[in-house]
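Dear Dr. K.,

Following up on our conversation at the group meeting, I've run the structure prediction for Uridylate kinase from Methylotenera oryzisoli. I'm pasting the input sequence below exactly as I used it, so you can double-check it against your construct before we proceed with anything downstream. Let me know if the numbering doesn't match what you have in your notebook.
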Amino acid sequence: MWVVKLGGSLLGSPELSRWLEMLVKISDGKVIIVPGGSVFADAVRVAQQRSGVSDALAHHLALLAMDQFGLLLTGINPGLVTASSELELAERGWQHRAIVWLPSKMVLADDAIAKNWQVTSDSLSAWLAHKIGAERLLLVKSKPLSDYANSTSVLLQTLVQDALVDVAFSDYCLEQRFQTYVVHKTNYAAVEPILSKRRMDDASVASEHVLLVDY
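The predicted structure tokens came back this morning:
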């Protein structure tokens, strides 16, 4: 099982529809897409600044923003289906569907998850990967990865320092069983053969296009 986080910043880029087409084609119920918050989360930040509401409420609204972006993805590609609970995730998997996770229901039910802006869709994708026992987590990023050119791996702490992932991300990755990878949004062609052969070992998954995250 793979968890693939698609950053909200992909909205409006030609790569987004290509990622969705590829994931629908190869999913077979074994790939779960985690949506970012996109413009909907940006609106929550602005609303919080103007209203002064608490981080806890803003966290709730940001989760709904992820739900909205997830629903939007199904409008872009009708081959996608949504799931908002572990049961629905399992059912969609049994049906061999391409799944978009709507996180608000499951995340709000877990009081252990911090209710602030330090926990974003990055951390929640790692939380989900642990929750469902996924073997691998893939983060698709819009920010250039040129600083890691010609590398096949990158330290987790480096990603945090470079603001490629949120500051809480390492807490959700350490001592977990899944392996984590990072890829730029333009390299979907490099990812398709990897996802199509999900039993490849970690050494063969990593390449100059897909970075293995060292914990």
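Two things stood out to me. Residues 104 and 110 are 10 Å apart (CA to CA). The first strand starts at residue 2 and ends at 6.

Best regards,
J.T.
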